Task: structure prediction
Amino acid sequence: MAFSTYIARYFYVYAAAGGPLLVFVGLAQRIEGFWLYEVPAVVGNEVRGGRGWAPLVLAALARYLAPPLLGLAGAALIAAGNPWAVLLAVTFLSIPALLLARNALAFTIPLLVVLGLGAVLLNGSAEQQAFAAVFVVWFLLIAGTVQTFSIPAAKGSTEPLPRLTLIPGVVWRLLWVVVAIVALIVGAQLLLRPGYGIG
Result:
């Protein structure tokens, strides 16, 4: 159990790194690359790139908002009867991450995602694809929520936002906790209650 939790953290920090990467891509910002670090590291990932105040603030926000919000988006796709799209999106987004990886761990984790989910996409039955998509979504929702509660203990993990915005770190931590909990509740409703819709 402890080993699986240890391994799962690497996939969480990869998902968290995906937030800033998506922000920089969406804003057409230059990306220097990203790094994933061993589990004892404070944050676990580093993404370099972006210029200007707004891209840096949005990227810092996305680091902790990305896993639960991506999980919520995946739950909505599954509730709409399209788990295949979840696997396709995760696999497709992980391919360019291989090119942006700047250390061995940052290359290995997206490679495992591409190989694992790619195999399910190409060779899995509809039931296997649905199971894999639901597993990915639950992982993002639950891990995103659990990790937000550990942020206050992670010294320095919220430093960029208070420095860039002059808003205290405790406010950002509260925001991440609220978003993660809401995403978990709504995502669980989407997954567990057929016909449940947002709004």
Notes: The mean pLDDT is 87. The longest helix spans residues 53-79.
